[in-house]
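Lecture 7 notes: from sequence to structure.
We start with the chain below.
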Amino acid sequence: MDLRFHRTILFKLFVFAFSILGFVSATWGIEPQEILSRSLEAQFELDLEGIKKTEFHTHQKDYILTARFIRLGPDFSYLLYLSPSKIKGRMILDDGTSRKDYIPLKKKLRIYPSLNSSLMQQRRRENLELLLTNYTISRQPDEFILGRPSYVIFFIPRYPGNPRLNIWVDKKTYLPLRKERYNAEGKMIASSSFVPFNLRKEFFRKSAYQSARRILGEERAPAFPLFYTLQEIGRIVKFRLKVPEYLPPGYILQGASLVDEGMAVKLTYTDGLGVICFFQRPRANIKMRNFQRLRFGSLEGKIRMGEDEKTLVWNKSGMTFVLMSDTSKEELRRIAESVK
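Predicted structure tokens for the same chain:
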């Protein structure tokens, strides 16, 4: 199992959580339902082009992802990664029907549901319900981002040990212009912002399609549904599916999926912002660097402590299990102990 790849997937889940957050509290003369409705649809209604920068602050080093972003209305978006070199050239093209993710190093084209599909719209609504249940929404004094007046919103966890998020929302378009994510210890672990961006209508889709032409004809990864139910995936795999009996307050199962070419199962849990990923597969040799030994119950595992996320790996009864999250070490231990 490639832990680096799955840490990337965990960041994607964080980014997905970021993408739905663009509303403010009921105070200061504006209803939260109105702001919520506008912010949810803002990214799908605008014609814009810009450079987006995402910074990750990890225990070992900081690194920056830079990407060119184009959005044209509800059914077209194009993302081209410019740096760092190991992901330069990666393209994500969303035509309103599907989202095509081309990874140059692997020469693979992965197909996912469009972010504007009915499935993903439902997922955003479910996430928002969880956010309103598990987080306090606090509006701060307005600020200027890229010269534009912006709402400033803090998402404060109701339960200790969960992450926190700050967002800046453009007051005219309701587009989130900047986001900052903090771990349970209060350290900023990720931030994203537009460097410049332009609202315009003269950009033609044909140009973006031409620049993404080389993704056509590439070998496609196996097409699995985005999420299965536990019952569905239990009938597919050839091993007995395990689930944790304990989860931190506010977390629920988002869904189950197949990874590693169908050899492993990933269960994804969320409280609307935080994400816990639980992997299981027939026993495999998973290599880790900079790990510590961790005992829980009668078992011993390897844990890698990071400010951005923590990874716990252990073996039991011919199976390998992996927990990945940005929750506390003790919460990770309690989750692992509850897997029977």
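Points to note: The first strand starts at residue 47 and ends at 57. Helices lie at 3-19, 32-45, 118-134, 205-211, 230-236, 329-337.
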